[in-house]
Amino acid sequence: MAYYFDEPSHTFGEYLLVPGYSSTDCVPTNVNLQTPLVKFKKGEQSPIRLNIPLVSAIMQAVSDDKMAIALAREGGLSFIYGSQSIADEAAMVARVKSYKAGFVTSDSNIKPDQTLEDVLALTQRTGHSTIAVTEDGSANGKLLGIVTSRDYRVSRMPLDLKVSEFMTKFEDLICADETTSLKTANDIIWEHKLNSLPLVDKQGHLKYMVFRKDYASHKENENELLDSHKRYMVGAGINTRDFAERVPALVEAGADVLCIDSSEGFTEWQKITIDFIRQKYGDTVKVGAGNVVDKEGFLFLAKAGADFVKVGIGGGSICITREQKGIGRGQATALIEVVKARDEYFEETGVYVPVCSDGGIVYDYHMTLALAMGADFIMLGRYFSRFDESPTNRVMVNGTYMKEYWGEGSNRARNWQRYDMGGDKKLSFEEGVDSYVPYAGSLKDNVTLSLNKVRSTMCNCGVLSIPELQRNARITLVSATSIVEGGSHDVVLKDSNISGYSYK
């Protein structure tokens, strides 16, 4: 006879936190959001700790090197997506590790024989008004000029006008050598009242851009997640098929932590992958595993040697695994059971294996609930896909700016390594959709807003750290009627600009 769980599985939206006593010390500025990323022994500290409890999902539409740099700057970590060639993923990791704060690789580039119409399309797609004109249209091509909004007037110039006709030419630009320090670059910017400064090599190839607007932000990043060499930290996704080739390449590129990207983690394939890493590198290479939704799945991966375990199947906004296969579990219930197993495992073995909650976050307060329920950190896809730093296009849909967002199990991504169960090397059927999400602006602004809410709620609960929240939180299951009561009701709303509230 099949096994039946005693209660229905629940989502984060079915719970609320009950306030606790708050002392005068309970103010948001005193809240510490540091949290362990990988396992550690009792009495020790995790060798890798996040400064904020957020990591970005292992997805084509979310985590590339640009996202990794932006999130590490705020104190979190990105896992570069693995559904690309080994060489391309390793190159992304290497770019993060070699990145120099304040030196930006240009992501808005155009060729001189393109047109004003192409400039307008590129500006709309990237949201950036400074465009490098290079010989081949690449980020590191020979620099021929710069185009900014001051170089053209749409109402007075034909759309088919060549870029070479209205760009600010190279000989009229103020540039600096690629070896220029950030301090010197900023001095040049301020001295000449520039908005940007191109850095070029001796052959005139563009290497970096330094922007005036970035100066203040680079002075403010006290939460930056850095390794022992003061480089940004970055993770990378791997799979259970080509790990023998992919893992060495990513380790060589400098990845700080790896994570097996799979739709279901309670499988021998994951143990085989972890065994390979342990045999080749011992404990020096950190690797997370998952996803699981119950005690048995967690214990299997913990005993296999996983450095952290991801929880969640079918709860992502673009995931249709539950519809297609009938597999999964409500995210809150899954998390609660796995966290209990983690704590029991810690008591029995003295080894603490951090838990990552992956999926099911709809509102900002769900982040606090996930942490209160025991998650050490949270993996987010849709949340980060909305920002300037995600690798997808910004498009206009029905008069509103949106960002493209698709699942790894969608026909667009075709990430067969994540879903294949029998070595067919193909995506047998789709487990994800191709969609849009509302464009939300910069990562920094949105993460700051979301975490301000988390800190404020923690103060309402009378706690100043994530471990305190996990120990002392009081959580109540709510009825469908009280969920309605919790939002605005029985009123006619005026236009509202409340941001960061829902990611639907």
How would you describe this protein?
With 504 residues, the protein is α/β, with parallel strands linked by helices. The chain folds into 2 domains: 12-100 and 224-383 and 454-485, Aldolase class I (TIM Barrel, Alpha-Beta Barrel), CATH 3.20.20.70; 109-220, CBS-domain. The chain is built from 17 helices and 24 strands. Strands 5-6-14-15-16-17-19-20 form an 8-stranded parallel barrel, surrounded by 7 helices. Helix 1 (65-74) runs parallel beside helix 2. It is globular, with a radius of gyration of 24 Å. The protein starts with 14 loop residues before the first strand and ends in an 18-residue tail after the last helix. Mean pLDDT is 90; it is low at 499-504.
What is the SS-derived class? alpha/beta
Strand content: 15-25%
CATH level 3 topology of the largest domain = TIM Barrel
Overall geometry: globular
Adjacency order of strands in the biggest sheet? 5-6-14-15-16-17-19-20
Q: Which helices and strands, and how do they pair?
A:
Blueprint: E1 15-18, E2 35-36, E3 40-41, E4 49-50, E5 54-56, H1 65-74, E6 77-80, H2 86-98, E7 109-110, H3 116-126, E8 131-134, E9 143-147, H4 163-166, E10 168-169, E11 176-177, H5 182-191, E12 196-200, E13 206-211, H6 214-220, E14 235-238, H7 243-253, E15 257-260, H8 268-281, E16 287-292, H9 295-304, E17 308-311, H10 321-325, H11 331-349, E18 351-352, E19 355-358, H12 364-372, E20 377-380, H13 382-385, E21 394-397, E22 400-406, H14 416-419, E23 434-438, H15 443-460, H16 466-472, E24 474-477, H17 480-486
Parallel strand pairs: 5-6, 5-20, 6-14, 7-8, 11-12, 14-15, 15-16, 16-17, 17-19, 19-20
Antiparallel strand pairs: 1-24, 2-4, 3-18, 8-9, 9-10, 12-13, 21-22, 22-23
Helix pairs in contact: 1-2, 2-7, 9-11, 12-15
